[in-house]
């Protein structure tokens, strides 16, 4: 793997970034788009709201569904921006790239676990479980990416 040089950061400038980072970015894009596609097609999020609040009318169900979708899209866009920022940092060999990747992984994993487990009101879990799992997938790729970035031999193996 050719590099453009070593900048003393522990990450060689120009080094290819881990494939897991590309996978995480792609999974994050899918997780961001999925709720919008869901509304336009099968609308499982509305079904989830109706199951928790069967007495609610269409306006209340729609408002709750929209709040969930807006939350998923905003957090998804923030995740995409973070992936792009960290990938760029790794590619150019920034000294702080490993720490940024590790921090981003920790925040993403925490958010995914909150999405999978937080209940409230009549909800066992506020977000449908499928969306909780979908938000977890980029974090799993992030774990693989972080491990590969900290492995000796990546960027000279210095920490």
What does this 3D model show about the protein?
- With 159 residues, this protein is mostly helical.
- The protein has a domain at 17-32 and 68-154.
- It is 69% helix and 3% strand.
- The chain is built from five helices and two strands.
- It has a two-stranded antiparallel sheet with strand order 1-2.
- A hairpin with a 5-residue loop joins β1 and β2 (12-13).
- α1 packs antiparallel against α3 and α4 runs antiparallel to α5 (129-150).
- It is elongated.
- The two termini are 20 Å apart.
Compact description:
By secondary structure, this protein is mainly α. It is built from five helices and two strands; from the N terminus they run E-E-H-H-H-H-H.
Oligomer designation = single chain
CA-based shape: elongated
The residue-averaged pLDDT reads 89
Measured as a percent range, the helix fraction is: 55-70%
Helix-strand sequence: EEHHHHH
β-strand percent reads: under 5%
Give the neighbour order of strands across the main sheet.
1-2
CA radius of gyration is 19 Å
* Record field, number of beta strands: 2
From the N-terminal CA to the C-terminal CA, the straight-line distance is 20 Å
Describe the structure using short key phrases.
single chain, 159 residues, mainly alpha, two-stranded antiparallel sheet, 2 strands, 3% strand, elongated, disordered N terminus
What's the helix and strand layout?
Elements: E1 5-6, E2 12-13, H1 19-40, H2 44-52, H3 58-92, H4 97-117, H5 129-150
Helix pairs in contact: 1-3, 1-5, 2-3, 3-4, 4-5
